[in-house]
Amino acid sequence: MLNLSCQSRVGVGSKRIGKSSLEEISIRSLGVIESSNIEFKPGLTVLTGETGAGKTMVLTALGLVLGNKSDSDLVRQGQERAIVTGKFAVPKELAQQISEAGGEVEDESVVISRTVSTAGKSRVLVGGIVSSAAAVSSFASSLVEIHAQSSSSKLTKAGVARDLLDRFAGLDLENYQDTFEQYQQMKRRISELKDQLSQADRQIAELSELADEFARLSPKSGELVEIENEIAKLGSVELLNQAVSSALNLFENEDLSAVNLLQQIRKNLDQVNGKDKQLDQISERFTESLLNLQDISSDLTSYLSQLEADPNRFEKLQDRKSSLNSLLKRYGKGSDKEVAFEQLLLDGKSAKEKIADLSGGDQRIIELEKEAEILFKKLQEQGLSLSKLRNENGAKLSAQVTEEVRSLSMPNASFVIDQIVSDSKSPNSYTSTGIDEIFILFSAHSGGTPLALNKVASGGELSRVMLALEVVIAEAEPIGTYIFDEVDAGVGGKAAIEVGRRLAKLSKSAQVIVITHLAQVAAWADNHLVVKKSENGLVTQSDVMEVSANGRKIEIARMLSGQEDSQTAQEHAGELLAIVKNA
């Protein structure tokens, strides 16, 4: 799908240019594919094959790796589970994002594995660490951008045009959005203060009481949970002592000691050390586990030595817990105790500030409104600056996309970024993205008035506009892999040749993988993969093979005429490949 976020540019890693790439995907028991390993190279890769051979299943497999919803119906008939694994090269910044999501990156590559069972259960591993589809989804859009046949319809949705323009311009909205949020908070603060002034005396009394209690108790974040845990421990000292002592007795009992028995096992294994590497590896794992058990014995001994009853401490903790619970009962908000306690800390810390606001009365409102004025002026400057940059880059984007679209067999087409700027003097004009509304307008004919894209563009024209946008924007994008599923739908002939040419151009900036049924597109490939199937009773098997030279000519002949053995079709295929080679 179209990536709509304004992302920072990814820097250069220690080995590779700072863009991700898909290196390999392994598929087991997924739909019509029994088993297949597919290696992907840089440049433009096309996947072709007869209808039903499994081309789209490759895309489905990648979707599962990237966190898409799983479906037990995808598991191959007669199998218990489907397993899909994808390997991606990732730059430093993306590696950090994956690590923060709980995955592991090794040697600038991440391996994501997804298992789907017939029972509907799904399992995800990221770098060998158990993860979740949601965690993978959080960084998937930085790995791969997928354009399915329906993706181009997103261009007609509100907000998409602005996001595309901001991507092209490399705009960073963070400072503007910080100011916008500060201004909104100030407006809310003034509004709340005006509402509260009518009940100022009662509010000040309540807040003063909270502030005094808060100062007296000085509660700390997480304190209540810690106290309750220590009370539970001190109240169970005898039971804890008995349990740990019994465990240690079993550890140390000469007749019953599990550790002694395990030591005997280790001695037996040591006798054949060096005789077989596989057994040596098992022995090493056993020794490591035994050492861990001995560490646990030491830890239990240490724990037991520190475990002692402390009636005075127990009583003080009970008193402290009672005081905190009393404070929470009087001033806490919500049913979740831990959340309410943390909110109480925030309320207690801000109580004096609120008292100052209420005590100041109308004068305080005047002071806050002056602060709001200063914030609004700053917001205004930043909003107008964004509008100016959007205007300048909108003209550039319009010109560049128009040039690309015209090269896609639409010689008279026009692509226009239309910008409507709201009144910058009105606070109501400002949103979290500025004061602009951005629209994509399009005309396919000479002299035609550009209108909203969804009103005038056919499905094939939408696909070509999408491709033209990606070609123009790709240079500034951190995404390293684009996948197009039949982006050539609805086009043919010369238009198909130009679609292939543009995909090849895009592949100079990123890895491009295309699922296509058009020979005119496939001819541009740097790497050509063919998905073939064979019928064997009720079992359908598919495989994916890389073809080159004569194999490519035969496949393109099949795509041109459906007759790969036809000499005429092969001559036409050779001619097409020669035209592309010399283009």
UniProtKB/TrEMBL annotation:
Q: Which CDD domains match?
A: ABC_RecN (cd03241)
GO molecular-function term, one example from the UniProt record: ATP binding
Instruction: Tell me a GO biological process for this protein.
Output: DNA repair
Which Gene Ontology terms of cellular component type are present? bacterial nucleoid
- Source organism, top-level taxon: Bacteria
Report domain AAA+ ATPase positions: 41-535
State a single Pfam family of this protein.
Answer: SMC_N
Q: Which UniProt keywords apply?
A: ATP-binding, Coiled coil, DNA damage, DNA repair, Nucleotide-binding
Coiled coil start-end: 173-217
Family per similarity comment:
Belongs to the RecN family.
Q: What does this protein do?
A: May be involved in recombinational repair of damaged DNA.
UniProt protein name: DNA repair protein RecN
Lineage of source species: Bacteria, Bacillati, Actinomycetota, Actinomycetes, Candidatus Nanopelagicales
Q: Which gene encodes it?
A: recN
